[in-house]
Amino acid sequence: MRKPGRRVLPTIIGASVVTTLAVNTAVVVAYDGRAHHAPGTMSGRFVAASNDSALSPRAVAPLGKRLAPQVLVAGATTLPADVVAKVRAMKGVQGVETVDAVQAEIGGKRVGLLGVNVSTFRDYTPEPTAKSDALWRNIAGGDVAISFTMGNDGGVALGSRVPAGGRDHPSELRVGAYATMGIGDVDAVISHQTAMSLGLPSGNAMLVSAPKMDSAKLLKAVRKALPKGVRAVEVDPKIDYPAPGKVSGTPGKVMTATQVQTVIRAAASRIGWPYVWGGESESEGGYDCSGLLLYAFNKAGIRMPRVAADQARTGYVLPFSQAQPGDLLIWANDPTAPGYISHIALYIGDGKMIVAPHTGTDVQIQSVYFRNFKGAIRVSPQMAARAAG
Question: Average pLDDT for residues 145-156, to the nearest whole number?
C-alpha cells in the first residue's frame, strides 16, 4: 500500500487538500490483464481506435490557442464561482481552466486523476497531446487517457478495458490513449461527464495561465484570492526542460562526500529488485526510476520530490562531460510531451549508472546511453527540499 502523499503534486492532489474518495465511493481502476494493443493516430501508436463511431464530430472543439499552465489551485469541494472569476480577472491572466481533481487507484497505484472539459482543457496540454483530435474524441467518448510512462513503462496496454468506480458507481473504462499532460503526477485524465458518473468532486481545481507574468508573482497573487482550505502551487514548465551545457543558477551547497556514498550504497542495495511502476519501497515489491532515487536519497537524509520531472529541478544542470558519482542523469523519452523529463538514473562513475528501467526488468547497473539524454543534475539538498514541497 502506498504511503499517503508520497507520489503527489506537492500540497495539491493529496489527502491533505483534495479528498481521496471514501472506500464505498473510491475510484478504483485496476489493470485486469485482458490487454490488447489497438492501432492509433497519435504518432501511430498512442491513441486506440475510435471508441464511439457515433460520437458527433462537434463533440470536441478544434484546438484553440495553447496556454502553458503556471499555477494549479485545488480544494476539497467545488471552487466558489466568485473566486474563479476573481482569478480570471487578474491582470495578466489569459486563461483559467476548472477541472475535477482526485487521487485514484489505477493498476493498484495511487495517481492524480483529472476530469476535464475536453474541448478547452486540451489547450493547456503539450503540443502533440493538444493537437490529437482522435485522443480527445476518445476521452469524450468515455475513455481514460493515461500518461506515457504509466502505459509504456508501467505495462498498462493501450486499448485494454479496466474496471472503474467503487460500490456506488461501478463502471468500466477503456485505456484510449497514452498522453502525458505536462503536470507532474497527473497520470490519468477522463472527461467531466465520466468524472461525474464515477462520483468525483466537481470543479474543485483550476489551472491558471499568465504567460507574460512571473510565475512566482502570479502564485502569490492567486493565493491572496483563495479562501481558507484552498491551496495553490506553481506549475513551472521550465523545470521540465533542463538543457545541458552549463550550470543552471548560482552555485550553492551540494551533497557532501558522505552523502554521495550513502546514496550510491542505498541504490546499489536495491539491485535485483523488480521494476514496479509507482514503486518506492519493499512493501510495494519494487521500484520505478524515480522511486528508486527517492529511496536512496532518503537514506542520506535528503528530501526529494517523487516524480522524475520534479527530481530534475533538485540541483544544477551539467553536461555529461562534467558528471560525477552521485549526480542524477535525466532523459526526455516521452513522445507525447517532448522535453518533459520522464526517466532518471543515478550516475556512479566510469560511464555506469544504477537505474530501474521499465516493467519486466530489475534495478540494475547499466552503461549510460544518450538517446533523448538531457544532462546531469548536481543535487543540492536545499533545492531538493524546496522541490519536494
Answer: 88
Q: How many CA atoms lie within 13 A of 127 on its CB side?
A: 3
- What percent of the chain is helix, strand and coil (3-state, nearest 5)? 25, 25, 50
pTM: 0.83
**Mean pLDDT across 162-166:** 69
3-state secondary structure of 382: helix
Query: What element of type H or E holds 101?
Result: strand 95-106
In the structure, what pLDDT confidence band is assigned to residue 165 with cuts at 50, 70 and 90? low
> What pLDDT shows up at residue 200?
87
Name the residue type at position 120: T
Cα separation, 130 vs 299, whole angstroms = 40
Same domain? 92 vs 36: yes
* Residue 244, all three cell numbers: 545541458
- Cα separations in angstroms, 86 against 12, 66, 208, 222: 20, 22, 12, 9
How far is the first Cα of the chain from the last one, in angstroms, to the nearest whole number?
22
| Structural domains counted in the chain | 2
Query: pLDDT per residue over 231-253, tens digit each?
Result: 998 886 454 444 444 444 444 58
Question: Is residue 175 domain-shared with residue 301, that is, in the same domain?
Answer: no
Query: Per the structure block, which three cell numbers stand in for 216?
Result: 512566482
Structural domain of residue 76, as residue ranges?
A: 28-235
